[in-house]
Amino acid sequence: MTATTDTTKGTTDDQMKTDHSRATTDAAHTHGGGTVPESSRADRATSFELADFAVPTGREEDWRFSPVDRLQGFFAGALDGASPDVTVEAADGVLVERVGREDSRLGQVGAPGDRAAAAAWTSFTEALVVTVPRGHAAGAPTMVTVSGTGAQGVAAQHVLVRAEESSEAIVVLDHRGSASLAQTVEIDVEANARLTLVSVQDWEDGALHLSSHRSRLGQDANLKHIVVTLGGDVVRVTPDASLGAPGGNVEMLGLYFTDAGQHQEHRLFVDHVAPNCVSRVTYKGALQGQDAHSVWIGDVLIRAAAEGTDTYELNRNLVLTEGARADSVPNLEIETGEIEGAGHASATGRFDDEQLFYLRSRGVPEAEARRLVVRGFFAELIAQIGVPVVSERLMKAIEAELDRTMEHATA
């Protein structure tokens, strides 16, 4: 764990991590400068070589919240499980290719950052490449459906999404069925391009999914990166965004609904390399049922050259029943004081009995009152997503989850 001085508040990031991971009320921090820690997020290991990563034990910082005993198959040298079926409905003008691993475009966005990601890179044989040509504005989303056919063995999958210069598009990755899937998603957003990338994890019970998303932004590029996690036994998504050219803007949105026995983990890293870039992170989750466990880690690094940075990250968790646990850890590391602004906030709280009482006192039945509170919790975030086909599906999924909430409440 790193420690960086918060010159505005007079506390260290280690102290803030403790506060946030135990938070039951909102805690926000605004930073005006910082010092370089002895162990920097910039120094994390990345490599295409599997041997450069030890098999995780659960004691490592990157894996301390993860159920590594359930993930041993993802750390092997060769992943040879049955690959999910992949179908694509491409928008007009968007090019879709299936290429071999020798294609020179693959692996250019960044190297794997953990052993599971390295195993995924080592093991895939065919990659899906989605390209939005230069200057093209796609009129409809491109839908990529990944359908698992079984969770026996671990499969490796590689996807590259390229938004060429001055293009605009929406790409949706929709995961369903059952699978054990180690996945890499490379996202390359060139200068002046605008890309919305949505990844929906709506797996059946029994599915295991570890997905490494690595993105880079060119000058004045815009990326809206959206993660929606609803199903699967263990889902761990690790989105990285590198702002390596001036004027880049990344918005990272996430929504998750964690049920009994599920582990859903979202571990983000926003790397501000170049000056005058903006990042915004907003993730919200609800949890219900015994041993429901969500993990959100938000790492932001502002390097010495990244003057004029403007960044903020937010995580909210709503615990609906007893027996559920949410871990939330925002980390902010600043190497220059010449920034526009930087801050983070995190909160984990139980269902608001006062809101419930207020609604019931006005004649709203308890079941409907609970629905209204949860809908309100997610409403603003769903509006931010701005992709109708995704928003409509989310509302239906939340209604289905709320049916389960009613079952937990009356059990």
UniProtKB/TrEMBL annotation:
Domain SUF system FeS cluster assembly SufBD core: start-end pairs: 150-377
Region (Disordered): 1-44
Biased composition regions of type Basic and acidic residues, renumbered to the chain: 11-23
Stored SUPFAM superfamilies: Stabilizer of iron transporter SufD
PANTHER family: PROTEIN ABCI7, CHLOROPLASTIC
Name of the protein this chain belongs to: Fe-S cluster assembly protein SufD
Top-level taxon of the source organism: Bacteria
Pfam families per the UniProt record, alphabetical: SUFBD_core
Gene for this chain: sufD
Family named by the database record: Belongs to the iron-sulfur cluster assembly SufBD family.
Biased composition regions of type Low complexity, renumbered to the chain: 1-10
InterPro entries (alphabetical): Fe-S_cluster_assembly_SufBD, SUF_FeS_clus_asmbl_SufBD_core, SUF_FeS_clus_asmbl_SufBD_sf, SUF_FeS_clus_asmbl_SufD
